[in-house]
Design brief:
Radius of gyration: 20 Å
Strand content: 25-35%
Number of domains: 1
Helix content: 25-40%
Largest sheet: 6 strands, mixed
Order of helices and strands: EHEHHEEEEEEEHEHEEEEEEHH
Distance between the termini: 62 Å
Shape: globular
Length: about 280
């Protein structure tokens, strides 16, 4: 079954109401182009580096404006709408970086919490500690949908191939990687990581991204894209700001790619042994 999919690229700011309005405008435009599955980026609801400022606008899932708007839009437009993620207030005072999938009737089908926390120090002076505020997820999810079986990841998750392999083994034919990649890491690794995940698992990859200079001062890489199971880029945006990438996806191509390169079937378990090579003191034994 071939469907049109859309990766919606945004430049979210600090105000959830403005972001919700931008999301609605772009989702409606994507649906107008015939997209039946539409994905928005990580942190659709607010890109806000100041944690106190972010906490001031946080809501629990049932009260969140992005969640409510997405449910209404999915039902009105009759599409599968995937909110790549938005920040959700948890009862313990921490935050979930949570993605949502809504069905064409507006019902929530699932949520996915980002598993891997972006705790890094970059050589341009940027330092990030997601684990200081966010509670990591502990469950990977795969959804059987009318147009294919889909796996879920968020941004930094892309650097952990075992997550994608486990979902592919569980039947995923399409992987989703909404993101807010930094400009520095995006320039170096964004496309190559996504193409690698597509090739090594024989899956489509759909990755909607944040792009441009944000109100909080950060700059994200953009280049939202769709990749086929052979690693070919079917469509890509630039890094300047809002954009919509439309592509056609036929999940049966996943099986065809895996038949050509059956690495999932050929995988073997193994052990790792560390050997003392006898070079202590610089002399061979």
């Amino acid at each position: 079954m071939t469907i049109k999919v859309a990766a919606v690229q945004m430049c979210s700011g600090v105000d959830p109401e403005r972001n919700a309005a931008a999301m609605e405008r772009l989702v409606r435009e994507a649906a107008g182009h015939g997209a039946r599955y539409i994905q928005t980026p990580e942190m659709t609801g607010a890109v806000q580096a100041d944690r106190s400022g972010l906490r001031a606008v946080l809501k629990a899932e049932g009260d969140d404006l992005i969640v409510k708007t997405a449910a209404r839009l999915a039902g009105e437009l009759g599409v599968h709408l995937h909110i790549g993620s938005t920040a959700i207030a948890l009862a313990d005072g921490k935050i979930a970086n949570r993605g949502f999938l809504f069905g064409p009737d507006g019902a929530k089908l699932l949520h996915y919490d980002k598993i891997h926390m972006f705790d890094v120090d970059l050589d341009n002076g940027e330092s990030w500690r997601e684990s200081a505020a966010y509670t990591p997820g502990a469950c990977a999810r795969v959804a059987a949908l009318p147009f294919g079986t889909m796996g879920f990841a968020i941004c930094y998750d892309v650097r952990f191939p075992e997550l994608f392999r486990s979902q592919a083994v569980a039947g995923a034919e399409i992987m989703t990687v909404p993101a807010a990649f930094t400009k520095q890491t995006g320039e170096a690794h964004w496309e190559i990581l996504l193409r690698a995940r597509a090739i090594e698992n024989g899956v489509f990859v759909i990755a909607a991204a944040q792009a441009g200079k944000h109100e909080d001062g950060r700059e994200t890489f953009g280049h939202s894209l769709v990749i086929d199971p052979w690693g070919r880029v079917l469509g890509m945006a630039d890094g300047a700001g809002e954009a919509i990438v439309i592509a056609e996806v036929d999940a049966s191509q996943s099986a065809a790619a895996r038949a050509k390169i059956p690495n999932l079937k050929n995988a073997r378990s193994f052990t790792v042994e560390t050997v003392d090579a006898g070079l202590a003191g610089g002399k061979a034994a």
